[in-house]
Structures are given as structure tokens and as C-alpha cells.
Amino acid sequence: MADSLKPQDLTDNEKINRVLNRIYRHQLRYDKKVAQLQADFNRVCKQMQGCYKELNFADLLHDTIINSTWLKDKSFSLHGWAANYSFIYMLYRILDSVKPQHILEMGMGQTSRLTSQYVAYCNPQATVDIIENDAGWIATYQPQLAQSERAKVHQRDLEFFTYDKTKCRKYKDLNEIISTTKYDLIIVDGPWGATQNLPRSNVLDLIKNHNLADDFIIIFDDTERKGEQNTSAQAIALLKEQNIEPTVFYRAGIKAQTFITSQSKSFIQYL
């Protein structure tokens, strides 16, 4: 074999080729390390940009709600799996400026602190249906919400289906709750999404069943993830099939939200 030959047994061309091959292998390893360093650098830059935006939304939220008369409890805990500052800021602006009448919130959490206070203290004609599967979480968290007969928390079990080779979860038996209600604000933040390819797909059923008001806003949380992007994209496609041309825009801090609205509510992108 050529590699077992002694240097003196090789021709000049063979010696040159050996050196060139060695240089080529070193270059490949160097290029791979450079590419990995560049990818790590880009990832860190993206994370830093997200943190900067998150701090900006935190300042905006603080300045916006400081003199709010209806938001009586301003003690949010926006970290971990909870809603982040870009989400809460935009939700507050929508509630305060648009004054939705019928709200459907899928997933109980920090956003529920907003919607329950809005119904209890801001808009006496508004209602909110909050969907949650975890009975223990409901028992723990519901007492922290503003209490109103127009703010209802519904426990619903999960059902499972397979989509694109992943097991996905959705709320079961929502028809008993939503009936023929036309919601003008739908918050899609549950059930748990994570690695599913079509998470939180109840909203697709809502669109198919015409549970959207003519003037509507849909907020998808966690759309930095591929699964939530898939579901929101299908929601947009379903609306277009119904000859509804929605406005779509995004907000992001350390997590991202996708907003899908009727043309009449497109102005909220400037809030």
C-alpha cells in the first residue's frame, strides 16, 4: 500500500500528493471548526437580541400599565414556561384599546391574570372562557384570578392524535363550551406544545366551525417553535379558504408570538 512506503521509495509527485492530502484534511477540520464557531456566534447573537427585545418590552409594559385603573393586580411572574413580556404587553394593549367582547383563552396562566381583570373591572359586557386540562393547576391558580361570573374556567381532558409521525395533544369536547359563540379574541397558549408537529390544533376546529367573529384577533404563543409555526400556518390557510384575507404579524422577546387578525383589526400591529 502507498501509505506503507518509505519516503525514499516515493516519486516526487507522490510526495507532493501526500503533502497536499495532509493539508486538505487539515483544511477540512479547520473549516468545520470555523463553521461551528460561526454557528455558535450567530446563536449567541440571536439570544442576546431576544434578551434586548425582552427588556424593551418589559419597560414598555411597566410604563403602559403603571396608571391603569382596571389592572388592579400588576404582579406578573413572566419567566420560564409562562407568558413573556412581549406577549403580556401586546395582550394588555389589545384589551385596553380594542375592548374585545368574547374571549377564548386556551391554557390558564399569566395571561389569565389579565383577561380575568379585564372582564371583572374594565368591560362589564365582556366574557372570557379559559380552558385548562390540569385540575390541580386550576385548584391552585384560579383563586389568584379576578373573580367574576363572566370569567369562567373550564377543565377539559386531553385527546391525542398522530400528525407527521408525532403524537399531538388537544383539548377534548370543546363544543360543549363554545357552542355557537363568536369569539373576537382567541389566545392560543395551550395545551402544552413542545416537540409536537401540530400542537394546539383546537384553533383549527374553531375556524372550521365558524366560531370567529367577523372582527377577530388570534394570538399564537411560542411560534419560535416549528410545531406552532405549522399550526398557525394551517390556521391562515383555513381562513383564506373561507375567503378571509388575514393580517399576520409577529412580536418576539425571548419567546415569539404570531398575531392573525381580520383586516378591520390590522391596526393592532402598530400598538
Q: State the secondary-structure class.
A: alpha/beta
Distance between the termini: 73 Å
How much beta, percentage-wise? 15-25%
Q: Total helix count?
A: 7
Determine the fraction of residues in helical runs and give it as a percent range.
40-55%
- Order of strands, widest sheet: 3-2-1-6-7-9-8
Largest sheet: 7 strands, mixed
The arrangement of helices and strands along the chain is HHEHEHEEEHEHEHEE
Mean pLDDT: 93
Shape designation? elongated
Low-confidence stretches: none
Q: Which value, in Å, is the CA radius of gyration?
A: 26 Å
The count of strands amounts to 9
Summarize the helices and strands and which ones pair or pack:
Layout: H1 12-65, H2 85-98, E1 102-106, H3 110-122, E2 127-132, H4 135-141, E3 151-155, E4 158-163, E5 166-171, H5 175-178, E6 183-188, H6 202-208, E7 212-221, H7 226-241, E8 247-252, E9 256-261
Parallel strand pairs: 1-2, 1-6, 2-3, 6-7
Antiparallel strand pairs: 4-5, 7-9, 8-9
